[in-house]
Amino acid sequence: MIVSVASGKGGTGKTSVAVNMALSISNLQLLDCDVEEPNAHLLLHSNMHRIEPVYVLVPSVNEELCYHCGECANFCQYNALFSTSEKVLFFPELCHSCGGCIIACPRQAIAEEKSRIGTLKFGAVGELKLVYGELDVGKPLVVPLIKAVKKQIDNNKNVIIDAPVGTSCPVIETVRGSDFCLLVTEPTPFGLHDLKITVEVLRKMEVPFAVIVNRAGIGDKKVNTYCKKENICILLEIPYQRKIAELYSKGIPFSLEMPEWKDKFQTLFNKIRKLVEE
Amino acid sequence: MKQLTVLSGKGGTGKTTITACLAVLARNAVIADCDVDAPDLHMLLHPEVLKTQEFKGSKIAVIDKTKCDNCGLCREKCRFEAITEAADVDPVACEGCGVCYAICPENAVTLIERVSGYAYISRTKYGFMAHALLSAGEANSGKLVTLVRRNAGILCKNENGTLIIVDGPPGIGCPVIASVTGVDVSLVVTEPTISGIHDLQRALRLLEHFSVKPLVCINMYDINKDNTEKILSFCEENNTDVAGRIPFNLKVTEAMVNGKTIIEYSPGSDVAKEIKDIWESCKDSLNLGNA
Lengths: 278, 291
Known about the structure:
The structure holds two protein chains of two kinds. Chain A is α/β, with parallel strands linked by helices. Helix content of chain A is 35%, strand content 30%.
């Protein structure tokens, strides 16, 4: 079973929920797909076994064969290629690696070469396996790195995926193929607003989901009212406690210091399993 | 015309809360909400929308089933796994590259423009505002950010303004890069947590990469004073200016629930006072003087 943990608003406790749940379940693999700012390893203090570079394919123009007809630039929907009468200019930050320019070139003057966008990192804490991606600073392309992390999914394990923040392409790529998605929010106007957007995305994607309210007790009750009205199940509420915030600030998953939460996260995971099996 | 982007790397550190306060304090700055995935600034600044623009950021392939003989060539060549066994286009996966269009032997594919969201030009009590909303499940947020910034630039020019304040999205990828390129100063909002420190360092490296002057502010600094010290000494070692430290105060959430900035809701609070000082530091960094 693959469960992803997502949130439209940042800082609602997505990584905290993913890590604490991961630590409470056996035979588990945790994937951190928040490749712009991966944080799960900071809470897990995992041993790093292996690091692999991740590449995307980008065009490389053989100027000896090219006669600057401009077909490649004409074809590229992302304006990543610009053809002058002497040279083809390439802007790698705009390239989506679709391979279209190679097809468009009438002289077979374009080949592909690898361009590094980040790294895959493999770690473990006891039995728990962690895989995460880390985007190289200054690189804009997030989706191919997320795909590389997701290729590491081990189907013989329970899989939890920590998704990136927001509601656009990186989140969609991460959640695609999950059996269930947990939406973490906080009971504030910002939390509710961003939750509504995320719910719309998940409904469009047809991935079943439920909500976790973190820092319950602050703000107002409108998240609960909204969920009730929309028939969205709130599977867990984590009350606002300064102790939880302080443990998080030190990089300690709170279920390790507050063992009653281990049971709650196990129950949560079992509830999800039941919902998925239905 | 100067530009200040409020950034954070890590989400939920208080970026939008602080941006809204700066907008109130600046008076007549143009405000740009570049968190187009999950924009929240409007809930504090209550813009009145003057103009709505369609955002056509990409194209999508459409397969004409009367021409298609399901040869599977498009499915094979599509690198985004956007074409199903039944030769339907998955609108979420399709990036509109046009490869299927180019190779289809039956000419059954067309590329059409898709509306991926809306950009708005609005008025608030504190100045004009450019903002947007990406439609659910759409891509190309970077391009929409660029459109919002272009709109903000036009507003600022038309109004003879001196400053644009940009609320950036979290992370360091495409929409963040689009939010910081060409700005004068970026105020990076962090928190004294292990993740906050990690993400701050990555955000600072990004700003260095794009030659933007950083200014750091530590929100909820008293949640972990040891980590606050670590951030302060890290900034000192790296010659990065610290604009201020904001204490944790539940009044900030109360203000949000009431749809107000903390400056309006509780002007005498410790948080409001500190943010006023931070605004002064921003002005210094931007060389805005007392204009």
